[in-house]
Amino acid sequence: MAMKGRIIRNQVLDKLMPLLWHGLTQQGIELLKQTSSDLVKNVDVMQKLIGYLERNTSIIPCYATRKELGLCNSSAIGEKMNDLVVAERQKHNGMSWSKNGSVALASITVNYDYEFFKFFFIAFLTKSIYLLLKA
Q: 110 with 85: CB under 8 angstroms?
């Protein structure tokens, strides 16, 4: 973070993290904006964090509710899909790809092996629905 020292950083994080955990992004933004400039080491980094939260407010979930419903709070599924679709072909073979080329290859791979991905997502959705009904 952009704070002057780990003690100050941890004090700010101790206030910020519960707000974000409960989906209170606006309050988190206000907390950061109201943080004294005397405590901030790097104003640019602080502004980037505030900008990120402002741009993504609508898609930052309430992690507490997701946990209560038994839903996933990590990017593990997306990371695994990236591994299966992109990384195996692009990273492990020492190739270098442009963003457009990477997206094109991922699209072709998913279309080519559609049945596998359909099975993967159906299994994931079935588990999610089961956990919702069980709660």
A: yes
Closest CA to 91 of 78, 100, 103, 82: 82
Whether this prediction's pTM lies above 0.70 is answered by no
The tokens of 86 are what?
């992109």
Alpha carbons 114 and 111: distance in angstroms, whole number: 5
Please tell me the distance from the alpha carbon of residue 131 to that of residue 135, in angstroms, as a whole number.
6
Q: Note every long-range contact of 123-129, with CB atoms under 8 Å and residues 24 or more positions apart, other chains counting.
A: 124/77, 128/70, 128/71, 128/72
Helices (H), 25-113: 25-34, 43-56, 63-68, 76-82, 88-90, 99-112
Q: Which amino acid, one-letter code, is at 114?
A: Y
- Over the stretch 44-82, which tens digit does the pLDDT of each residue have? 999 999 999 999 999 888 999 888 888 878 777 777 777
